[in-house]
């Protein structure tokens, strides 16, 4: 198998609101949407930085539900950004809840975790130091010795 690209595909309650939120929070640009006559979005594509993210409204009749309906999410999306402090402020201003505040990490990033109003978690990270895998492991091990 030759994989050409990988696209996150988000299932959300109120895809139209999610598209608006992602535009405010992440500067997302809507590429297109397919809307049913009743307003439900069957498929939409947005661009966050260089990445296409697909999303759709929930279709519980087909077992398609978002994290808000399920009571949580099992994954997060990591956005590696140039100015993580500015990105964090922008996302929180747009309405994301802080899960883990900004802090410098042992693996060479300054990062935070936020939850969007639709239940998806986003890790925001920015490079602060180049760390070799060996040094990263040493620092990780040290965390368990404290």
Strand line-up across the major sheet: 1-4-3-2
C-alpha Rg, in Å? Answer: 17 Å
Bin the strand percentage. 35-45%
Query: What is the oligomeric state here?
Result: single chain
Distance, first to last CA? 45 Å
CATH 4th-level superfamily: 2,3-Dihydroxybiphenyl 1,2-Dioxygenase, domain 1
The helix/strand series, from N terminus to C terminus, equals EHEEEHEHEEEH
Top CATH class: Alpha Beta
Give the helix tally. 4
Kindly give the count of domains: 1
Tell me the helix content: 25-40%
The CATH architecture is: Roll
Major sheet: 4 strands, mixed
Q: What characteristic shape results from the CA principal axes?
A: elongated
Uncertain regions: pLDDT < 50 for 5+ in a row? Answer: none
- pLDDT average, as an integer? 96
Q: What is CATH's topology name? A: 2,3-Dihydroxybiphenyl 1,2-Dioxygenase, domain 1
- The overall strand count is 8
Short description:
With 146 residues, the chain is of the alpha/beta class. Helix content is 26%, strand content 36%.
């Amino acid at each position: 198998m030759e994989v050409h690209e990988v696209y996150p595909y988000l299932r959300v309650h109120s895809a139209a609101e999610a598209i608006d939120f992602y535009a405010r929070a992440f500067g997302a640009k809507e590429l297109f949407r397919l809307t049913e006559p009743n307003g439900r979005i069957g498929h939409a594509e947005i661009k966050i930085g260089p990445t296409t993210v697909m999303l759709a409204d929930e279709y519980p009749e087909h077992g398609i539900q978002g994290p808000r309906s399920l009571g949580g999410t099992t994954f997060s999306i990591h956005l590696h950004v140039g100015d993580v402090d500015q990105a964090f402020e922008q996302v929180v201003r747009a309405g994301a809840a802080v899960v883990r505040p900004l802090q410098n990490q042992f693996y060479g990033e300054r990062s935070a975790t936020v939850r969007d109003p639709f239940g998806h978690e986003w890790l925001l990270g920015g490079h602060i130091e180049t760390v070799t895998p060996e040094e990263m492991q040493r620092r990780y091990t040290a965390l368990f010795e404290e």
